[in-house]
Design a protein that fits this description.
The chain is mostly beta strands and about 375 residues long. It contains 1 helix and 28 strands.
Amino acid sequence: MKYLIVPIAIFTALLSGIQTKAQTAPFAIYSASDSTWGPMCLAPSTIDFYMYGVAGAFNPQIDVVTCAIHYGDGTSDTVNVNVYGDFTYADFWAATQHEYTAPGTYTVYYEAWGTPLSGTTFYYDSLIVSNEIIISDTCGSVSGTAYYDTNNNCVYDAGELPMPNLCIALYEGGQAVAYDYTDADGSYDFDAPINGTYEVQLLSQTFNNVCPGNVQSVGAVPNTSLDFALFCDTAYFDLAGTLSAWQVRPGFDGYLYLFLSNNGCLPQSGTATIVLDPVTTYNGYCSQPNAITANGSTLTIDFAALVGGQDGALFQIGIYTDPAAFLNTQACFLLNVTPTTGDSDPANNSDNYCFTVTNSWDPNDKAVTPANGPD
């Protein structure tokens, strides 16, 4: 995934909110913003624009405000939006989308106007954001790979695990100007104007040993070899699992949600087993069908190596509740995660999770920690 960066000279002007003004009644544009982090690399580039304003002299749900956004390239959009609120406030919000087809620096001009139906006064306000959009054609890649360095040699050797879901920040002049998360293959990638001076920093708190270090100077752009080799001070793993459920209801299908994680530094794969309550059966559905096997009332789920500090693995598992199950009784499921040998905290590898059998269910009710489950 790629994120564009903001040259430090214009970073302050391009923060979230882009431009704000004092909120004055009875009518004013309060803020204007867009969907970019900063300059876009290469045209065409499609950008979302947003305008928010207050309309104290207008009647919510009745009056309409006209909004215009001039994109600085000779084109503009005009939209009519409803006024929202109640007797204590009234505001309006507009959103448009525009494609820039050529590189350049563009000043965006926002306008809003209208007359309340209950009066004759015409209200108008405007807001100019200078150099709001910058589209460059001189960008390069700032990229690399984060991986678990099994032999601590600072080289990405065959068989070593990539490290997904780690946050990498790009800095210019000591200021963070963009963020990216490593993909499934451990890679991250920024598009950066080639005339900047940058650093990349690994923001993970799990690994206190990083080669060549948590912060690296980028040097000349493009630079595609900014790897982070990670290893543990103390090599340990701590697997853990939790269960939640949706709709344990007689005669209906429902779901178990199994979440597995590793709270330690050392990557570890394993197996989770779930022993179903006698009033439930596995209905054959699993969000990762190749990972699960069923043997009577026991489900076995194999999972790939998990690494601490990252997102864990979530499995959605279909169950069917016997029509003869008694209401308001407890359906209990035993979870066990292995291996436990070498696990720094085996106490969180197993537990008994109980859920109430009900005759109706709020479709939005997904208990993360069931009332009768673990604290």
